[in-house]
Write a structure and sequence with these properties.
Rossmann fold; 7 helices; 201 residues; single chain; disordered N terminus; six-stranded mixed sheet; alpha/beta; globular
């Protein structure tokens, strides 16, 4: 009798939240109030294709910053990951180094194979070599030239938005140009903070 009375209460009190329609149509999410904050806690899956460790450093710092805000962040290198079977999350972040002005090939192939529901939220970041003067002329590259060599994020957006995903943020990080292998340009941690703030809005 107690069992019957409990469910009678749930489904006859006129509650939208606990009506049968709610259980049939409500989409499961991972949002919970963060202690002492007005933000909602998210589950985030981050995938990067770091080649020289710069993107990996950004990913780990982003995890640290976001977990300090109460979010749950899992970081993966795409090597060995199955893009067709990504774990459930509230947000997906994809990070790629830049090769000849575009996302590295492994990341392009990965996001093209990604299977996620339309409406899924995502964010992207890219690492680029910093702009430096031409060795022969001493002139800095024009904005048009810089854009031509920094199309990593627009190319990733084109693929992901083409799948019906919804973008929430992006950020560029710069690598010292002497070797193109790093280290990251000074101030990159502050950029991570900015990126995390955009994501958490």
């Amino acid at each position: 009798m107690l069992h019957y009375s409990f469910f009678t209460f749930l489904f006859t009190r006129g509650s939208t939240l606990l009506s049968p329609k709610y259980f049939l149509t409500h989409k499961s999410v991972h949002h919970y109030p963060s202690e002492g904050r007005g933000e909602e806690r998210m589950r985030v899956e981050l995938y990067h294709a770091s080649k020289f460790g710069n993107g990996a450093k950004v990913a780990e710092e982003l995890r640290r910053v976001m977990e300090a805000k109460g979010h749950n962040v899992n970081v993966h290198h795409i090597k060995g990951e199955n893009p067709k079977k990504l774990p459930s999350a509230d947000l997906y972040i994809f990070g790629s180094p830049t090769r000849f002005g575009k996302p590295i090939g492994s990341m392009r192939r990965f996001i093209k194979k990604v299977v996620l529901s339309p409406g899924t939220k995502y964010a992207v970041f890219a690492t680029h070599g910093e702009a430096v003067p031409d060795k022969k002329t001493g002139k800095m590259p024009t904005e048009e030239e810089i854009y031509r060599w920094r199309k990593t994020i627009p190319i990733m957006d084109e693929v992901l938005k083409g799948k019906g995903l919804v973008k929430v943020a992006d950020k560029k990080f710069y690598v010292l140009a002497e070797t193109m292998k790093g280290p990251l340009k000074e101030g990159w941690q502050e950029k991570v903070e900015e990126f995390a703030a955009q994501i958490s809005l």
